[in-house]
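Module 6 notes. Inverse folding takes a fixed backbone as the condition and produces residue identities as the prediction. Think of it as a translation problem where the source language is geometry and the target language is the twenty amino acids. Below is one complete input and output pair. Work through it position by position during the lab.
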């Protein structure tokens, strides 16, 4: 349901009250799960960044091609972080849309209760 796009009372009244309640509950559950996952993601990204910094400080005196090996390790880690960051951006965008919809649902429920025959 595209709640933010509803443009008139007729459209609002066509929504069943139980459907609106279910959608609001689902949005709330998503937001709660998203917050928990985002916190885990941020902790893992911080850890990866610390590892990357630690690798930059490493010396490998017994490896002839140490600079190349270290650069390869850093590049691999940064590549992993980049690919995860792209996906995280998509999830953040979805979360913003759900937040916007959730706010619209709150207003729509008020309108529904006051304007729509039961």
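Target side of the pair, the amino acids:
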């Amino acid at each position: 349901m595209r709640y933010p796009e509803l443009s008139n009372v007729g459209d609002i009244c066509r929504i069943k009250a139980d459907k609106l309640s279910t959608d609001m509950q689902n949005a709330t559950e998503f937001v709660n799960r998203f917050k928990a996952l985002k916190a885990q993601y941020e902790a893992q990204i911080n850890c990866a960044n610390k590892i990357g910094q630690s690798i930059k400080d490493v010396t490998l005196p017994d490896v002839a091609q140490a600079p190349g090996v270290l650069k390869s390790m850093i590049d691999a880690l940064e590549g992993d972080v980049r690919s995860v960051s792209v996906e995280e951006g998509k999830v953040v965008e979805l979360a913003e849309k759900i937040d916007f919809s959730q706010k619209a649902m709150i207003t729509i429920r008020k309108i529904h209760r006051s304007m729509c025959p039961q």
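Reference fact for the lab report: The mean pLDDT is 90.
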